[in-house]
Amino acid sequence: MTVRPEESLDPASWDEFRAHGHAVLDELLDWVRTLRERPPWQPVPEEVRAGLRLPIPHEGIGLDGSWQDFRRSVLPYPWGNVHPRFWGWVNGTGSPSGALAELATAIINTNAGGGHQVAPYVEGQVIDWCKAMVGFPADASGVLVTGGSVANLVALAAARDAGEPRISEEGVGIVPGGAVFYASAQTHNSVDKAVRLLGLGQRGLRSIPVDAEFRIDLAALQQAIAEDRGAGRKPVCVIGNAGTVNTGAIDDLTALADLCRSEGLWFHVDGAFGALAAISDRLKPLVRGMERADSVAFDLHKWLYMPYDVGCVLVRDREAHRRPFAAKASYLAREARGAAPNDHDPGSLGLELSREFRGLKVWMLLKEHGLAKYARLIEQNVDQAKYLAALAQQHSELELMAPVPLNIVCLRYVGSHEGERLDAVNREVLIRIQERGIAVPSATTLHGRFAIRVAITNHRSRREDFDVLVGAIAEIGREVAAAA
Ligand SMILES: Cc1ncc(COP(=O)(O)O)c(C=O)c1O
Question: What's residue 196's pLDDT?
Fold first, then answer.
């Protein structure tokens, strides 16, 4: 048998690879530096999409070949959330030094699922910083995850099993009448998904109405809990919002903490972006009560502008956090010495075993900029939201559609028109603003009316960008209304 020469994926020539790497980095940095010169978003053309439906390559086209394909087919067509005028959904922007931290993460490519290595210690440090950011006690538990959706799932799994510890052995059927979670009708759908994934079904989540400011109606919540108890169901957990996805509304978290204490319920806060208001002395009072929660979920890729993806879940009771995830397998046994998992094992605190070293970028970026800078940027975004809201209120053709407690502004074109036609007009206005490459807000429905929604978690936006947006809504609104 002839022996085939052995191969690896390392470059044949490190010098050539280094030159390529430097050129690539230069080009990518120029791309970020010149973002403003390009539209925030453009659709992916059909010929590009066709090029993304090819069979798997049998032989490779080489480093330069794949880079040229990336430049042609990928680089021009991202969603655009890095752009100063992207305010759709709740998206973060990342940062150039965040990208360098990602490069370092990829180069060392350590599996941060546990083990006696530096990653769990760095993540432990980051988790301690996260606790300090939201006012959680130093002995609370926590883990970094992909984002808010998984953070909510992890926290709600802990809540479910704390409500009835026999669930991990017997399953959810052990709870007579079924376990029930409560959240306002404005709560993000990741909570709904989590409750269903936890086996509680759609009926396991009671949707509670909101008040005029889109905050949970406390009397309705109390009534729902009493009704469920009366009907033999088991109330387990209340989910409060520190910043709803639609309008940035913040539930009365102190009242929810009091209620959960008196009712013996788990109190979870979905603070995907709003929890981080707590790092600003000025904004912290808005989320008061969050520090009393049993668990809190938030994203660092949203309002700390870290590169995707990184979210955080904190759980006050360490045992409750571990219960749904504790690793029992013999191949994961801990040892006092050697490289095996030691005391820090994030793999037992969430769904993932093998995982990216997400903590590294958080650790490096917080060291680089310091928390005070992030607090200023968050305040800047809140001030920009107030600025935009004021522009909308002052404009004779625009309407502000909801209070602006934080960083989300819902507005629309009204002109001299009324009624349902405005929904269709504004839907078209939004699409044209996106398609003309002006800006990327998104949409929502408030009290049955279509709203253009601007969520500002963007360190690159400037006040002038909001002037541009308001001008475009008014101008395109007139154009669309005239043609309708
Ligand atoms: C309030 C809220 N909760 C949860 C999520 C889900 O977070 P992620 O997209 O990071 O999974 C979001 C996302 O926008 C959100 O706004």
Answer: 97
- Cα 389 to Cα 269: distance, rounded to the nearest angstrom: 26
Query: Which backbone phi and psi does 423 adopt, to 5 degrees?
Result: -65, -50
- Pick the atom of ligand 1 nearest to 309's CA: 10
- The best mutation among 144, 190, 210, 301 to test binding of ligand 1, ranked by most ligand atoms within 8 Å of the C-beta, falls on 190
Q: Tokens 């929660």 correspond to what residue?
A: 293
Q: Is 362 exposed, middle or buried (0-12, 13-18, 19+ CB in 10 A)?
A: buried
Question: 251 in ligand 1 pocket by Cβ < 6 Å?
Answer: no
Q: Which regions of 202-291 does DSSP assign to beta strands (E)?
A: 205-208, 234-241, 266-270
pLDDT of residue 341: 66
Distance CA 345, CA 326 (A): 10
Which residue lies with its CA nearest to atom 5 of ligand 1? Answer: 148
**The ligand 1 atom nearest the CA atom of 244:** 1
Helices (H), 370-462: 371-394, 421-435
347 lines ligand 1 (CB under 6 A): no
User: 189 C-alpha vs ligand 1 centroid, how far in Å?
Assistant: 8
299 Cα–ligand 1 center, Å: 8
C-alpha 298 – ligand 1 centre gap (Å): 8
> What integer pLDDT is reported at residue 29 of this predicted model?
97
Q: How far apart are the CA of 71 and the centre of ligand 1, in A? A: 30
Ligand 1 pocket check for 147: Cβ under 6 Å:
yes
pLDDT at 420: 74
pLDDT tens figures, 327-354: 677 667 767 788 876 666 788 899 999 9
Residue 243 Cα to ligand 1 midpoint, Å, equals 10
Provide the token pair at 250. 């913040």
| Structural tokens at position 230 | 């009366």
Q: Is the CB of 299 under 6 A from ligand 1?
A: yes
What's the CA gap between 240 and 187, in Å, rounded?
8
H/E element, 151: helix 148-163
Quick: pLDDT tens for 115-150. Answer: 889 999 999 999 999 999 999 999 999 999 999 999
Give the nearest ligand 1 atom to 149 CA: 11
Q: With 0.70 as the threshold, say if the pTM is over it.
A: yes
Which residues lie below 8 Å from residue 173, measured CB to CB, with a gap of 6+?
Answer: none
Least confident of 103-107, 111-115, 131-135, 205-209: 111-115
Tokens representing 31? 């791309």
What rounded mean pLDDT belongs to the chain? Answer: 95
Task: Give the number of the atom of ligand 1 that is nearest the alpha carbon of residue 243.
Answer: 1
Contacts of residue 74, Cβ cutoff 8 Å, sequence gap at least 6: none
What's the CA-to-centroid distance between 273 and ligand 1, angstroms?
8
Q: Note the pLDDT tens digit of each residue in 364-422.
A: 999 999 999 999 999 999 999 999 999 999 999 999 999 999 999 999 999 987 777 99
